[in-house]
Amino acid sequence: MKTRISNFATMLALTLLLISAASTARADSDDGIVRVKSAVPMSEAITRIKADIAGKGIRFFSEIDQSKLAADAGIKLRPSTLLVFGNPPLGTQFITSNPNAGLDWPVRLLLTQDDNGDVWAVWTDFEWIARRHNIKDRVAQFKMATSVVGSITSTITTR
Fold first, then answer.
1. Strand-by-strand arrangement of the 107-113 sheet
2. Distance between the two ends of the chain, CA-based, in angstroms?
3. Which residues are CB-neighbours of 7 under 8 A, at least 6 positions away?
4. Alpha-carbon distance 1 to 33, whole Å?
5. CA dist 47 to 28, 39, 56, 89, 138, Å?
6. What is the pTM of this model?
7. Which tens digits make up the pLDDT trace of 49-78?
8. What does each C-alpha distance from 129 to 8, 45, 88, 94 come to in angstroms?
9. Euclidean distance between CA atoms 125 and 133, whole angstroms
10. pLDDT of 25 over the 70 cut
C-alpha cells in the first residue's frame, strides 16, 4: 500500500511538473497568448530573432521600442519591444479566408522584461487566431506559421 501511495505521489508530482513546464510556454490557452522565456538579455534576444527572420527570408517590417515611446511621453515602462514581420505568401492566405484576420497579420512578437529581469517572447497563438476569425480552411498554413515562429523564438532559449 505504501508503494502504491508513493508511486501515486510521484506520478502526481511529475504531472504537476509537466503542467508547470507547459505553462512557461503558454500562459493560458484561453487568452491566446504564447510566452517563451529567453535565456539571453533583451538586446541579444532582439538581435538573434531579427537575424533568424532574415536568415529565413521572412520580411521584417518594423521594430517598435515601446519603452522609449513611453519614456518620451514621461512614462516609465519596463523594456518592451514589438517586432513585426511576416511572409506575405503565407500570411495573406489567412486574410483571403477572412479579411478581418488582417488585424492579426503580419505577425507581432513582443519582447518584454518582467519585474524579475526575465525576458519573454510573447505572441498570439495561431490556433487562437484561427478560432477568433472562424478560419477553418487554412489548417496547414496555421501549423506552418506556428512552426516558423516556434523556430524563430527557439533561437533565444539557450545561451
1. 26-28, 33-37, 119-124, 107-113, 80-86, 59-65
2. 45
3. none
4. 43
5. 27, 13, 14, 25, 31
6. 0.81
7. 999 999 999 999 999 999 999 999 999 999
8. 38, 25, 17, 10
9. 13
10. no
